[in-house]
Request: fold
Amino acid sequence: MKRKKQKIEKESEIGIFFKRIFRPVSDAVYDCSVAIHNKIPHKQMTGKRKRIGEAVFYWAILIVPIIQFLLMYVAVNLRSFSFAFQSYKFDVKTGQEIIGWVGFANFKRFITEISADSVMLLRLKNTMIVYAIHLFVGTVLAILFAYYIYKGFKGTTVFRVVLFMPSILSSVVLVLIFNYFVGRAVPELFGIKGLMSTTFEKKFATVIFYNTFMGFGSGMLMYSNAMGRIPESLTEYAKLEGCSATKEFFSITLPLIYPTVETFLIIGLANIFTDQANLFTFFLDDANREIQTIGYYLFQTIFTERSSMTSYPYASAAGLTLTAITIPIVMVARYFLNKLDKGVEF
Amino acid sequence: MKKFTKHLALALTGIVFSGMVVGCGGKPVVEDNDADDETMYQLKVSNYEGGFGRVWLDEAAKRFEDKYKDLELGDGRKGVNVNIESSKNGTAGQSLIANLSKSEYHVFFAEDTYYYSLTSSNAVADITDIVTGSLSEITNGAETGTIEAKLDPTIKSLYDLDGKYYALPHYEAPKGLIYDVDLFDQKGLWMAKDGTFGKKADIGAENLTTGPDGEMNTYDDGLPNTFDDFFRLCDYMVEEAGVTPFTWSGKHIGYTSSALAQIWADHEGKDQFYLNYSMEGTATSLAVDVNENGIATSYLTGEDAKITGDNAYKLQRQEGKYVTLAFAKRLESNSDYYTSLSYENSEDNIAAQKTYIRSRVATSQPIAFLFEGVWWENEADESGHFDSLKVYGGETRQTRRFGLMPYPKATAAKVGQNRTIVDTTNNSASFIRKNIEDEQIMKVAKLFLQFVHTDNEMQEFTVNTSTMKPLNYSVPEDKMTRMSYFGKDIAALRNNDKVDIVYAYSDHEIFVNHNDKFYLNSFAWENTKYDLNPLSVFHQTNAPTIKDYFKTMVADREADWANWKN
Reply:
């Protein structure tokens, strides 16, 4: 009770502080807007005029995202489609590009590699491991920590800061700090070898740990926000009925935040083959093959400064093939996840 | 207490964010008072500030401005001002080529700019006139030849497109084995013919090993002749001398992959190694099979050994590859041979340079060898590593003695064979933007590019960077006196008849269309089962045998070749 009172007092102090600064500003802005409103002549709008006005407003809002969508999504993907059926070569005598159509040759090559090439299979396995850890460890822990924070248990503020801090810092800086920690501090503290300097398995595990830990912030924020929307009357009623925190979590909180969880699961599934697990930030284009994911491999195929246009057709075909694999998986998952949704609205 | 916590939180946040600010920063742009002077020709130059830095360019620009301070091209402007933008961001690779036509710069010194990517971008100017034109005028008669005449035939075969040139290769960039000559002297690591180690004065010049060149009284006397000698030296360093033999960058594993590939080239020799690029000739060392130690047990002969574009995948069988794997496995087998940072991801190339340079003067565990590129000394200098050592007795880049060590030969039978060094030049190139609207600026840009390819300027480049340009020139004695020991060692390779440099260039269709596949670190060790870095592979607890590695590489290259041919 005492703590709660202190909190209220603290909040009011902050409120007074902000009021002192912003109140005069907001008053001045309001006075201005009233003055402008009074000066503008107001005609009664006819129905047609009103409809045109609404249409103009509607399109003014939509035009920017539509242009962005057409340029950045439609045009880019159309180009990817054409790339996938092309080959790029150089004319040895003139140094100019020769673009040819090769049908499904690029697809055939990728499918052959991903079904038989042991390094590609390893990348596929790594991709699945990254997704599984993200799903079973990352998501579960993010929900549990979000619940912990939502309930305001001991150390909530510390957890909130520590777990959310990575989300507001540059990933390059974080990777740098983490690299030094696992490579230099850990050996000094525990007398063992650096976690990234022994076997590929340990290296990969360290990268996964980093991804899981750093991924908490955004997930936790979304889940705790969803939990924050749960009506207080509902949880108070449950408390009066003698509902424990665990029961409240499974019977009230989880069903009510299910749409958020579902969205995250589907997004995670859709990104499965593009997730490069921060490998590029860790290793640039020098990651050992044993720890690569499909997402990293595709990124590396195109991004490396040494690549030329000759790499694009294969990468496009690979991307399209993986999209073709992902779409039905996402649709089926969505169907079953929707079935689990109890449709509670609040 | 609460106040303390607040201050602590503030301080920690400050540290974290100051790190971000520092990380985002860069070298301040050098002030240029003439940058806006419209009465002068304002030439804008973009420079990739990697290992070769910018000092060489700053100095070349000054000399150019001095030489052409009275230049008039009939439009009222007089003299030239060279504005240099030197950075790592957007000054190299595909990102540079993609934005070239929109660039504000006129002349470029870049890397990872593959020649055919440049020409097919249609954004680079035809520079045939300055490449094939006489240098007599620009050198006031000191040179009468052309830049074209200074190009190695293999480089020319790629750059000459039906008599037209659009760029020039910028610098040589082989990776290899750096050794600390001072440490060899201090710790007595020179090798005697009887297999003992000591200081040169104690052993006596006539009792030193010949070195891999097999000749006495040459630069490599006292260095190990063979792999066996080399690992005896490593054992001596560890057990007797208190020296750690190796360190390298744990982050940039491509460095060690490429540095090891030099052993492959050295074992094969110039002609056999160049088959990988020309894809035309007869191979003499294609192993049918190898034993567990990487020694071939039988070879392909006759028609089976004839190499064409259709079957050049067979070169994956070259014996040099397998002896290199044997070397790598042996090096990896003893963790006392290398520092714990050698596999550490936080140890990037700059950090590895610092670890290496500091080790002899600032620690009790000096390090003898570093796998690195030849630009390492210049990069370490421009990163301030040598300056930071002043507190340890005033040793500087000029006084420290390092060398590019000739790799030992796999067997005694190979001792005496020419030393072979392979160089991809990192696909570095210098070129001019095509769509320069100001005709006079285009003339000045061409003049500048021609100027930096005169012998005098290339020599100055070498003096500054301790590296060579991939053109035919040598450094005279008077300029050698201004160079570091390492720079002299590199420059001397050009004048050594027992050293062959193979430029990894060719006009073969497969090479041209799959240039990125021929990049040395991946080209050498490409396979679909194991990592591309042999040291990383042998570092694992379940590492394959050399024979397994061999079989995988051979089978996979043949499978890849079908894609490369199309």
The first helix of chain B runs from residue 2 to 24. Chain B is about 40% helix and 15% strand. Chain B touches chain A through 54 residues (CB under 8 Å). The longest strand of chain B covers residues 41-48.
